[in-house]
Amino acid sequence: MEPGAAGDSRPAKPGPCVSGAALAASGEPGRRMPTVAAVLPAGGCGERMGVGTPKQFCPILERPLISYTLQALERVCWIKDIVVAVTAENMGVMERIVQKYQHTRVSLAEAGVTRHRSIFNGLKALAEDEPGCKLSKPQVVIIHDAVRPFVEEDILLQVALAAEEHGAAGAIRPLVSTVISASADGCLDHSLERATHRASEMPQAFLFDVIYEAYQQCSDYDLEFGTECLQLALKYSDTKAKLVEGSPDLWKVTYKRDLSAAESIIKERISQEICMVMDTKEDTERVGYLLEEVLKKELNNVKIVSGVRSHGGRDIQQITLPQCYNFVCVNGAASDFPETQQLLSVLEQSSLSILYPVVVVLVYFLDFKSVPLGQKMESLMWIREFAKEVKKRNILLCGLLICYPQDEQTLQESLKQGAAIIAALIKDRNPGLIGQLLVA
Amino acid sequence: MEPGAAGDSRPAKPGPCVSGAALAASGEPGRRMPTVAAVLPAGGCGERMGVGTPKQFCPILERPLISYTLQALERVCWIKDIVVAVTAENMGVMERIVQKYQHTRVSLAEAGVTRHRSIFNGLKALAEDEPGCKLSKPQVVIIHDAVRPFVEEDILLQVALAAEEHGAAGAIRPLVSTVISASADGCLDHSLERATHRASEMPQAFLFDVIYEAYQQCSDYDLEFGTECLQLALKYSDTKAKLVEGSPDLWKVTYKRDLSAAESIIKERISQEICMVMDTKEDTERVGYLLEEVLKKELNNVKIVSGVRSHGGRDIQQITLPQCYNFVCVNGAASDFPETQQLLSVLEQSSLSILYPVVVVLVYFLDFKSVPLGQKMESLMWIREFAKEVKKRNILLCGLLICYPQDEQTLQESLKQGAAIIAALIKDRNPGLIGQLLVA
């Protein structure tokens, strides 16, 4: 990915804001933020995707794409309302998404038959400044696509502030391919200078009155066949949009391959951190820290924190990172079911697994010579049934057995293989493997 | 994916041609195919990728991207030579790729400092029609990107034939984003009519003399800053290129996310078929066919063939599909190591795993009540060591235990879970899990 793109911004829980210091960071600390709302046209039917489901509703890790986009917008405190325009037939689907994934600032409007008509309906919902209506007319409105889930706060801020100043603003990107103009007989007429042209992307932002007036004045032809809001603002409100260079992660999920790419990015983002929970038994702790060392060496892009679980029931949340979706629990040979159950019920009670599947690997160190491996495995068969239970709450549970004690070199090899297994489980997050007992 | 895109064309082994009937399929059965060669500029440094490795050398399933592109071109019989232009520093890397993945029609030329200079060098290598030189000047030359691995024979044929007729031809695609022109102050000047513009993609094709003459005549400025070969043909050879609508899988691997997308597409393509090899013991065979039924039901997009392995050593190749990269071997309780070894050595001797990692799942049906599961697992621990051995030949080996006999309902559940495990192993192809004994 290009420098500055993605990676550093992990997905956040719904609700809490990532940054209130956005304006300060923009270099204009004295400036007052205008009131801002967002409109997301989501009435498309996804014909380019080649799948039955409209692309905004296609699942990524079992959650619809549009929920990721809403989450990205809700992370930004200063966006007060988000109006999503969906078709009448998808209204129920969308309501369930808003409820299930706890989106708090979302209102729904009915989509029109074209993109422009959907946006217009979204704007109308914001313009109806009636008493009792929870929406109020914002100074600036951001228009974004439901299928661009990786939008960052900085570009949203840039277009919003530029819109306040210029009346309109939009994100742009360099062209990936040369653009050409065809003659009537299907031959090359001319190719465009790549340096002077740009791809118009989303988000865009407008002074509300500028874009609302443009929509009220524009022709049916525009509403039917147009696609570019910046062009409407220019044509009907005489407003020249400020263009803002965006990062590559503004890209639009268009084809089926883009869904795969989005899934990879999301999986990578939620695999950046592992929380290790150590049993307090001294010997286990020691070998637990050896595993931690090997994990740090083998997965060198992953942040690993660890803490000791007290048997008095100290809350696991004191150990964990706020946005960590991966847990490795190191258990002594005597660790038993109730303790694990306690740990998992803490995870279940947190809202962690609402948005992403959480991976939990239960590691057992045991002496394959003194206790036959097979016997130990049989004693851990409860993990199989338990994994099915917690899967219902989006937790993916596996067991991992590592022989200990062993001579130093063999132990290092086992730990290395253990790290590779943990990495595989976290990277792929494949629910087909839950409940398995793996051996390193 | 759009209709007609990908999916139906599985990756092929190097060497054998997919189709000799291409011309017939093009609707011009009487037409004689011109002599055709291809030039691939591969001198880029991949700065947009944000990773150290130039993108054409980035690995997908451990094989460099450019090898997939070469494979796609080598599937097409009528492309006689493929000239790859690489930088001097990557010449050795490229030679090893050609050798390791058995590319047979590839010659190397030295890349220039820009894309146009690299292509020019590739053309020069074809123009040098000297005795002793294995390359000869073709009538038509195809220019393609090293980072567009999913090119299909039909579009190659279309541009080659159109080039023979018109002198030049290139693949185009509809624009995904609106293209705009910016004014000097960074504001919108105007947006282009999306309907009359197209993205110029690859492959392109030219009468050799047309493009070679254009390169010989063009200015240093063109060679330094230009990117569009069709434009050179227009400007210097007065040749208007025929534009040919391409499918979405012509897309160029540009960003890191595109590598993920490419990996997903490749994994999906090699996961379309499973070959089941049944042990001949009657009881195992019966339950093996039950598993086959469940697999067919659960993985309904996957083609599953099965056959019985004879103990006399009947060649497994008689059972397998020609391009199948997934094997499920159903073993009786008494099946032992030598038989499995025999099967795997047949796989190793085939060239199957040169291009893609091959997944082999050894399934054991056993009565958990009569033989304790743990004991059985211990007796199968040889799979762990054996898996490390065959991994060296790109074979990913796992074991899967399924309880049998069980009552009908429990058996169905076990088989369903077994199918989910097999699907997970095939889909993710994660080498971190080799040698594991999974339980359904």
Topology:
Two copies of one chain form a homodimer.
Chain A: H1 22-25, E1 36-41, E2 59-60, E3 63-64, H2 65-74, E4 79-86, H3 91-100, E5 106-110, H4 115-127, E6 140-143, H5 153-166, E7 168-174, E8 178-182, E9 188-191, E10 197-207, H6 208-217, H7 220-225, H8 229-237, E11 242-245, H9 256-269, E12 273-278, H10 282-298, E13 303-308, E14 326-331, H11 337-349, H12 352-355, E15 358-366, H13 373-379, H14 382-391, E16 395-403, H15 408-428, E17 437-439
Parallel strand pairs in A: 1-4, 1-6, 4-5, 7-11, 12-13, 12-14, 14-15, 15-16, 16-17
Antiparallel strand pairs in A: 2-3, 6-10, 7-10, 8-9
Helix pairs in contact in A: 4-6, 6-8, 10-15
InterPro entries (chains A, B): IspD/TarI, ISPD_C, ISPD_synthase_CS, Nucleotide-diphossugar_trans
Pfam families (chains A, B): IspD, ISPD_C
Protein name (chains A, B): D-ribitol-5-phosphate cytidylyltransferase
